[in-house]
Write a structure and sequence with these properties.
The complex is a heterodimer of chains A (about 300) and B (about 180).
Chain A (H helix, E strand, L loop, with lengths): L1 H35 L1 H39 L2 H36 L9 E9 L7 E4 L12 E3 L4 E8 L4 E5 L6 E7 L3 E6 L8 E2 L12 E4 L11 E7 L5 E5 L8 E5 L14 E2 L2 E2 L2 H10 L2
Antiparallel strand pairs in A: 1-2, 1-12, 2-5, 3-4, 3-12, 4-5, 6-7, 6-9, 7-8, 9-10, 10-11, 13-14
Chain B lengths: L1 H27 L14 H12 L6 H14 L6 H20 L4 H25 L7 H25 L18
Classes of the chains: A alpha+beta (about 300), B mainly alpha (about 180).
Chain lengths: ~300, ~180
Amino acid sequence: MAKDRSQSSDYTGPLRRLLLAVLVLVLAAVFLLWRIDSPRVERFRAQITDRLVPNLDWAMAPVTGTINLLRDYQSYQRLADQNRELRSELRQMQAWKEAALQLEQENARLLDLNNVRLDPRLTFITGVVLADSGSPFRQSVLLNVGARDGLVDGWATMDGIGLVGRISGVAKNTARVILLTDASSRIPAIIQPSGQRAIVAGDNTAAPPVDFLENPDLVRPGDRVISSGDGGVFPAGLLIGQVAADPGGRLRVRLAADYERLEFLRVLRHHGNEQVSDTAQVITDSGPLPAGQDNAETDDQP
Amino acid sequence: MNDLSQTRLWLMRAAFLFLALVILFFHLLPLTTTPSRWTGPDLLLAFACAWSLRRPEYVPALALALAFLMADLLLQRPPGLWALLALMGCENLKSRGRNLRDSSFAVEWLTVGIVIIMVMVANRLLLAVALVEVPHLPLVLSELGMTLLFYPLVVLITHGLMRVRKTAPGDLDAHGQRA
């Protein structure tokens, strides 16, 4: 017996080592391939996720529900406090509601006066959040709508109120949304009312900082941050949040979307911004003047 | 007897993959969509270490590689690198298993701790060399600390609940022979 065993381990030892070497090489090759040709491997990753995660949904939904129920139960213990807070908030809200109603009427009147038609192409698809990124280092969620529903990489995603993120990675049945809080998220934004352009750059914290601000003095905490549509990827004018200053004095965005509970998300269909590519031209009797001529004359004058 | 232990061997191999799937399942639950300041332990690595030290035949290299690669793909990590390092760490532990069999738990904890730290340091270094964005350091440190803290619990579960124990003298091994 003992001899038999030693022989078998003699036999399997090198084989096992060979298998290990092959595995190590394969894994290293996968990493190198990812480093060289990231989009291809990311597509592969999206397909794997697409196969696996929707199949787990039947189990995920009840477990998530139960855990949320338990969490809610903890919050019931602070019910009295919450009730008092809610009541005081409600009083403030009623004042706001009155203001909002008046503004709504005024807005409707003005729209009517100007004969405005809102862009009918800005429609949306609503998806349910299937899973989160699974790791604390990445901030993303997986939606149950995908290429099947006509989703395209780069489309904006909102909850009912504010921008949540952008689609990155579409498989057949699922799509991944990179949240604004992810360290790789960069969204061109405009800050109202000063009209300053900036970039909202995620850094894995709850409130992403505002980068590349031209003149920080013009921006005050409480200003609204909306998407600017620069770069043509995103539709313009989506609410992102409000400016807030952190204790270090750095300007950050307090996001309007409720990141605590992301359950249903809207994906906005976006067909590209209209680009004005022509420069201004003067039409004369002998046809339009070339655009450069006008500039050349003005250059000569000083 | 031989048939029975063969069945058990394959059952336990399947059980490890199932365990990996369960851990990933709980990772993927959409519970935390806000960034957090700390992280939970890397349970998959901890369980893989505990099983590798106790019953290397239950966690063959192929199963380990498969589980780690799956975790890489599903958890949005650079695919392959973490799997490669964790696999090498576990294989290193397997080769030490025989020496560690008679020593106390503290020694095991220390050994596993060193291996996990090596894996994390190597991961960070190689990511930096490949010019990939490295994860936020405090988060990585908290993951490391939590993994080390939770390791005794993982061993307790492995030993008590899953009945994956070190081979004692006189036990039958996977091939129905005396160890």
